[in-house]
Amino acid sequence: MLLNARTLVLLMILLAAAVGPVPVLAAPESPVEFPAVAQGHPGCAGITAATPQTPECDAVMAAQPYPDVIPVPYDLGVIAGKDFIYFDADEVPLYNAPDGEVIEIFPAGRSSYVNVLQTSGDWAEIRPGRWASLDNANFAEPSTFTGVIINRMDMPFAWAIYDHCTSLTPGGRRNCRESGGFDRYDLMNIYATVRVGEWDWHLVGPDQWTVQTNLSIVQPAPPVVYNWRWIGVSTYEQNLVAYEGARPVMATLVSTGDMDEEKWRTDPGVWKVELFWEVGPMEGAAGSEDFYALDQVPYHMYFNWREALHGVYWHDNFVYYWSHGCVNLTVSDAKWLWDNWVIKDTRVYVYDEKQP
After folding, report:
1. Whole-number Å distance between alpha carbons of 356 and 354
2. Residue 103 and residue 125: Cα distance in Å, rounded?
3. Are 198 and 237 in contact (CB under 8 A)?
4. CA–CA separation, 63 and 79 (whole Å)
5. Residue 94: what are its φ and ψ, rounded to 5°?
6. So what's the architecture of 82-139 in CATH?
7. According to the model, what pLDDT value does residue 289 have?
8. Is residue 67 helix, strand or coil?
């Protein structure tokens, strides 16, 4: 997404004055190579489409029923205690006081969220001395989803991206009664993988198989290795992993720009984080139907001029293309990266390992 142009130019001038010329694109220090994708746990190597169960794999599933991770703490950080609203109207009259006189017209819409300064009955002050009726207003509900901090990773794990029932065998029909299922954002290990037709089917529990299109998968091996701390963003899986060298440390779901829309895609490549803004407005696409204006966006970490890692309070549509080029995270996950991982020149590797 875009910062207010005037504010961004000012920030870049101040930054340049402080640190000198800023490189936009950082070339990789080693060739970008995709290692062989791990198919599951070594103890489940005997699993095939014809042999969907083995005693050895049963023992692995009993010993490791859940990924060895802990949730990132839920923390709204700099926007804690703040309320944000959007209006079901393209234009909203603003008053000088609750039930007062109209003094201007506010350009609103579902892509414009404003910070509520205070409320009085059915009225909200959205700008100093500017009040709007709450009749057509909707309050934002920040996502409660958070990513995970990884203790150990012996096999891939995945989040369910839909509510779905699993199958008793790879390629089998869904069987809610006998095989069970998962809710959106449920986390699971991938113990084994077999190919059925054009798709990978994953063993995610005893007698539980699911097709790859139901999951966002994190692999234990990174797509490429850089020294120290860096971030990988998969636009295919719509997830982000924070690495220390080859070791995955934190993982979460994201929403990037639409990779089929040139003007909104999140550009693949290796970049460096060069600009930080803890909280501030974002707006863009002025004069078009794609116009958006957002108050108090938290934890901007810009890595490619118009593109940034940042928190969102206005949607819970992670794993779907949803941004105008940025990497959308929950506020909690963005805060974790801001507090623990991202500093100036941290590499962000955006890549697409698209499968059939």
Report:
1. 7
2. 13
3. no
4. 41
5. -110, 140
6. Roll (2.30)
7. 57
8. coil
Three-class DSSP category at 172 = coil
Q: Which residue has the tokens 């083995």?
A: 54
Contacts of 179 (CB under 8 A, 6+ apart): 165, 166, 167, 168, 207, 208, 209
Per-residue pLDDT of 296-318, as tens digits, reads 999 999 999 889 999 999 999 99
Residues in the chain: 356
**What is the model's pLDDT at position 258?**
84
Q: Do domains 42-74+145-218 and 82-139 have the same CATH topology?
A: yes
The average pLDDT across 165-188 equals 97
CATH superfamily membership of 5-34+221-351: L,D-transpeptidase catalytic domain-like (2.40.440.10)
The rounded distance, in Å, linking the Cα atoms of 215 and 184 is 9
User: CA 213 to CA 158: how far, in whole Å?
Assistant: 11
Q: How confident is the model at residue 10 (pLDDT cuts 50, 70, 90)?
A: very low
The tally of CA atoms less than 13 A away on the side-chain side of residue 44 is: 31
Question: In this predicted structure, what is the pLDDT of residue 36?
Answer: 37
User: Across-strand partners of 280?
Assistant: 297
**And the tokens for 330?**
């929950």
Does domain 42-74+145-218 fall under CATH 2.30.30.40? My reply is yes
Give the count of beta carbons closer than 10 Å to the beta carbon of residue 135: 11
Q: How confident is the model at residue 109 (pLDDT cuts 50, 70, 90)?
A: confident
Q: Quote the tokens at residue 276.
A: 């930080």
Beta bridge partners of 132: 124
Q: Are strands 148-150 and 199-205 parallel, antiparallel or unpaired?
A: unpaired
Could you identify the residue written with the tokens 């549509």? 317
